Structures are given as C-alpha cells and as structure tokens.
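Following the same procedure, sequence and fold were stored together, as reproduced here.

>
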Amino acid sequence: MVRRATSTPRGAACKHPTLSDLPMTTLPPLVLVHGAWAGAWAWGRVLGALRAAGHPVYAVTLTGCGERRHLLRAGISLQTHIADVVGLCESEELSDVVLVGHSYAGLVITGAADALLTRGGHRLRQLVYVDAMLPLPGECWSSRHPEAVRTERAAAAAASGLNALPPPDPSGFGLAGPDREWLLRRQGPHPFGAYLEPLHFDGPRVATVPRAFIDCIDPPYPTITPMRQRARELPGFTVVEMKTGHYPQIQAPGAFVDCLLGIVRSARPA
C-alpha cells in the first residue's frame, strides 16, 4: 500500500491523528539509528517531542561514529553496527520495538531486525526507513551507486588513513545556513568497511514486519532514488512523502515527529 502525505509549504506537518485521538495504552519503544557521518546527536531536535508523546526513545550511536569516534578503526563493519542495535535492544529488554533508520542505517535496521527475529523473544512492531537504504538480500550500501560514486568513495577512504569515508558538504543533503553549519561541525568520518559488506538476511522473514518509507523529496538525495522506487514496488510498504531534504529530523523536526508518530500509530504489531 502506498500512502502519500505531501503538503505544500516546506516542512508542513503530515496529516495524522493527534495524541488525544488515541486510547491511552503503552506505546512502543522507538530505537533511532543515525546515518553515515552522524551520531545519536542527529536526532536531538526530535527526542523531546517523541518522548512527550509517550514513547520510550533510544538513540543509538554506532561504533566509530559520533561520541564513539575514538573507537574508529579499520575493522568496523556493517555487522559491527548491526550488533550495536541488537545489543541495545537486548540490554534494555525491549519488545514491540519500532526500529527507525536514516539513510545508511536502513541496512542496519534490516540486519538488526533479521537478527532479533532469529533469536526470538523480541517482537518487532515496525521498521521505518527515513530516506534510507532499502536492501535486498545480498546487497551492500554501494550496490546501487553509480561506478563513479563507488570509485570516488574508495579513493577518499584510502586517503583517509583510517579506512573511513570523509563527510560530505551538507549542502548535498539540501541543508543551508545554520543547519548546514551545524552539520559541518558535528559530522565525522564513517567506517568504510560498512560500504562494501553485503547484507545477507532472510527476506521473507523480515517482510513479516510492517514497513514504512519516509521519502524526502525537496530536494531528493540522488543515491536514495533507487530506494524510493523500490519502496513503491515491494509489497506491504507504506510510503509517506515529506517536502524536505535528506535530513527531515533536522530541517523540519516538528513535521518529522508528526509523520513518524502517525506511521507508528497506523502499524499493527508483527
């Protein structure tokens, strides 16, 4: 099913029920996973509103990123980052979880979902892909990137001395002014091992979990374009459009919170 919630002004809120429209129940925990070059800080503008809505919220920082940048090393892989998310869910004894992944982290939440489903005892309510990678079994982050992009990133990682991808200018994400300056100060290199490692998972098993894709269309981030089409082609996906660039949680935090809460409220547990 495709559902589009696109509004005319930039950052205007998606139309969803308000919290007062809902019965008072225990709301599912949200586990937020940042994209490349970021950290848990990337969710800072939305944490308060999500918690005020009644959800337990956990923002993960992946190994080698954000405040864990001191752990950056050549051996960090996609599986390292999947283990970060699985470890949080297990240590916090979370159930009925909504995994939310931005950009690169679409791979991470897919792998984490497969691992949690394999282990049992961790019911997943939903997977939400925020302008994110939406992998098929056996694909890696670079699989659908043009050859020129792959070559450029490999050269940049080799030159870094840390086997890490240097952060790009945030203007490429549609950010300008203070938002761009904020990201320039906060971004850091991203482990390159995660760029090339295929993700092997049980596609039908992960597909049993309700899935949604937040499509950020103004401007669209080029490397996510194949994922936008895929989200509309795969069965069982809800697609919501937002008129922001690649970082809706930074560019339009209020609208992003409204959209995410509406998506979560509409999902039935797997």
User: Anything to note?
Assistant: Confidence is low (pLDDT under 50) at residues 1-13, 15-24. The chain is about 35% helix and 15% strand. The domain at 19-266 is CATH 3.40.50.1820 (Rossmann fold).
